[in-house]
Amino acid sequence: MGLFSAPAFAGNAATALQPLVLTANWAGYLAVGVFVLAYLLVMGEELLHLRKSKPVLVAAGIIWGVIGYAYTQQGMPELAEMAFKHNLLEYAELLLFLLVAMTYINAMEERQLFDALRAWMAGLGFSLRAVFWLTGGMAFFISPVADNLTTALLMGAVVMKVGGKERQFITLACINIVVAANAGGAFSPFGDITTLMVWQKEMVSFGQFFDLFIPSLVNFLVPASIMSCFIGVKVPKAATEAVVTKRGAKRVVLLFILTIGIAVCGHSLLGMPPVLGMMAGLGLLQFFGFYLRKTFALDVARARECAERENNGKSRGQLGNVAPFDVFGRIARAEWDTLLFFYGVVLCVGGLGFMGYLSLLSAAMYSHWDVTYANVAIGLLSSIVDNIPVMFAVLTMEPDMVLGQWLLVTLTAGVGGSLLSIGSAAGVALMGQARDSYTFISHLKWTPVIALGYVASILVHLWLNAATFH
Question: Where is each Citrate transporter-like domain found (predicted)?
């Protein structure tokens, strides 16, 4: 997400101007102050009952307004405009990617897939603790193939359905999903944007990423083992509930898998942004929705037949719930507060990066600190600032590091975001999905436990992959 440096403009013939360094004047100080104030308001969402998108939207406007003023005074307004448009493009790709993922999730929910999955889990006698481990384990092993954001949204939907009014369970399960999804994405080139960046930069080869499997697993298991002790063995009340999915539910799942496959293959084989494949997948869902509407009579007939066969009020009542599938209705139900929050974060961080703060911070760390400590600090930094611009700053500097250190910074940047709910896309998305139960404060209470997993994963990597440090 939007970090600018002079080389970013080197290939543009339209301008030979260099970005201004604004880290030591009033513009930079004001931008940092506004950003800190906005994040403090985000952190206080649970106490203030203020939607998290509001402060960052205003902060983004102020920061880029300051940048525009500073560049206009120097006679370079076009440079600031180019920077803003670049960051806006980064957000547009993220927005459309998220929108498609959320639309598919909502479509699965409308087809009653998660209701059926919840009833199936409870029907098999799965306790809340078993569901905690099941969703966490699935998040860990799915995120290396899909991205951690989509994985978190999918597992979060299951947790919300199973948990019902069990707020403590939903809180811990969401934290577990965030940790698991981020940890699972750290050992695969496709699991996170940062790993993709490191792979494309050829700092780590495809097969070498899997050296991080055990450290990533430890990062997930340590906090999960502790948190699971605070979840009871209660079996959800839905144990006797019988839920039948609506027609086409399984095909929506297959289309979602196909969409992810198109996005991954399009990026890895054709070099196209993943959002291209996601939007193509949205088109496929729209075609399928058209088919469901054209054959809607089958749904009505099936519901009426079921009601007549069972001859009970419950079945007859279900007949009134049958409605045509509307893909645009699913899009409208996307979590727009989360999507707008991402806009604010991308533009705020992009603005600070354009001013030179992230490059300044990275340069100071790698010039004055031991490289191992610097890479550990990168993970801590990524819990506050998005890991993408942080990793971009490191890759732009190209510090002289051995393979083990590149693997270390890949690990820490990937799992460090789990320390805070705002530290990763998965956490931010789940804050919107489970707004009443999973908040910044509720996650912060368990940060010490998550930090144990963070430290343990680093120590395991230093010991298990010691040969890569020579």
Answer: 46-414
Which residue has better confidence, 105 or 236? 105
Burial class (CB in 10 A: 0-12, 13-18, 19+), 181: buried
Burial class (CB in 10 A: 0-12, 13-18, 19+), 158: buried
Contacts with 186 (C-beta within 8 Å, 6 or more apart), sequence order: 192, 195, 212, 216, 219, 410, 411, 414, 415
* pTM of the model as a whole: 0.67
Separation CA 235–CA 128 (nearest Å): 6
Give the position of tokens 């402060």: 55
* Domain edges within the chain: 95-332
Q: Cα–Cα distances in Å, from 458 out to 91, 192, 412, 462?
A: 31, 18, 8, 6
Instruction: Band the pLDDT of 240: cuts 50, 70, 90.
Output: low
What is the residue-wise DSSP string for 236-282? Answer: PGGGG----PPTTHHHHHHHHHHHHHHHHHHHHHH---HHHHHHHHH
Distance CA 179, CA 79 (A): 39
| DSSP 8-state assignment for residue 418 | G
The residue-averaged pLDDT of 68-89 equals 88
pLDDT value, residue 237: 64
The radius of gyration computed from the CA coordinates of the chain, to the nearest angstrom, equals 23
Are 3 and 353 in contact, with CB atoms under 8 Å apart? yes
434: which 2 tokens?
């489970």
Candidates 391, 350, 345, 59; CA nearest to 203 is: 391
pLDDT at 454: 96
What is the per-residue pLDDT across 377-420, written as a single tens digit (0 to 9) for each?
Answer: 989 988 877 676 677 667 766 777 899 999 999 999 989 989 98
Residue 347 · residue 63 · CB < 8 Å: yes
Q: Please count the other Cβ atoms lying within 10 Å of the Cβ belonging to residue 329.
A: 15
Positive or negative, the CA dihedral 414, 416, 418, 420 is negative
Neighbour count for residue 244 (Cβ, 10 Å): 14
Q: How far apart are CA 172 and CA 182, in angstroms?
A: 16
> CB-based burial of residue 228 (10 Å sphere; 0-12 exposed, 13-18 middle, 19+ buried)?
middle
**Alpha-carbon span 203 to 196, nearest angstrom:** 11
- The angle, 0 to 180 degrees and rounded to 10, between the axes of the packed helices 403-415 and 193-200 is 160
